[in-house]
Design a protein that fits this description.
Oligomer: single chain
Distance between the termini: 37 Å
Number of strands: 14
Helix content: 25-40%
CATH superfamily: Ribonuclease Z/Hydroxyacylglutathione hydrolase-like
Strand content: 15-25%
Radius of gyration: 16 Å
Largest sheet: 7 strands, mixed
Order of helices and strands: EEEEHEHHEHHEEEEEEEHEH
CATH architecture: 4-Layer Sandwich
Shape: globular
Length: about 240
């Protein structure tokens, strides 16, 4: 069965599956004036899925006013150039990942683990380069659908961010936490600094939210904050 083109997470917040039903997700935030902010753009072939997701919401690429990337990896920034070209929207990413987006090359892998050293030799890690219009900083609140707060969670990449949509109390984790067969950290060989990834993810347990959406995995819409806090507490002893 084909996945739905768009899934409602909260009022005005929609998940757009770009690979499978939830393997890789982008998000559309619809503002009161009908404009759209995209969060992540999937792999290089994802724009067709994103455009279909927008159409299911009655939206067109011309409605997209801003594109925000959680980080500079091919499964999140691979479709950024095409979506920027289609929409004419400026691209925003944390300052520490901006150079990687503009060069079209992923940040380095964590080579303190043998699997990271092997993966670094095998992977390509490149994606279409695209210009960055805005370099984001921790704590910045974007004028998006009532307020989208930037939460720095570096480690998976140097400038990895999570996002908190304040009006609907919806957290988008980026790759700080996956929800694939249960909550888990991203594979260490995909991270620039896996230990930092685990350390900075704990800030997500200190925020206030009711729903949590994952770029890898389905959302949690009930008891989300408690679920995240239980996962983080358990990970301290793992």
């Amino acid at each position: 069965m084909a996945p739905p083109p768009a899934v409602a997470v909260a009022p005005g917040v929609f998940r757009i599956p770009t690979v499978g039903s939830w393997a890789v997700n982008s998000f559309a935030l619809v503002d009161g004036d009908g404009s759209v902010t995209l969060v992540d753009t999937g792999v290089e072939r994802a724009p067709a899925r994103i455009v279909a997701g927008l159409a299911a919401l009655g939206k067109h690429p011309a409605d997209v006013q801003r594109i925000v990337l959680t980080h500079a990896h091919p499964d999140h920034a691979g479709g950024a150039k095409e979506m920027a070209d289609r929409t004419g929207a400026p691209l925003a990413v944390h300052a520490d990942d901006a150079g990687f987006v503009e060069s079209g090359e992923s940040p380095p892998n964590d080579k303190s683990y043998s699997v990271g050293r092997v993966f670094a030799r095998l992977q390509d890690g490149r994606f279409p380069a695209v210009g960055v219009g805005e370099k984001l900083t921790d704590g910045q609140v974007l004028d998006v659908a009532g307020g989208l707060r930037v939460v720095a969670t570096p480690g998976h990449s140097p400038g990895h961010i999570s996002l908190l949509h304040q009006p609907t109390r919806t957290l988008i984790t980026g790759d700080a936490i996956f929800n694939v067969l249960g909550m888990r950290y991203p594979p260490r060989f995909f991270c620039t600094d896996f230990r930092m990834t685990k350390r900075t993810a704990h800030v997500l347990g200190e925020l206030e939210y009711d729903r949590v959406a994952f770029t890898h995995g389905p959302e949690i819409v009930g008891g989300a904050r408690d679920a995240v806090r239980r996962f983080l507490a358990k990970s301290l002893t793992a």
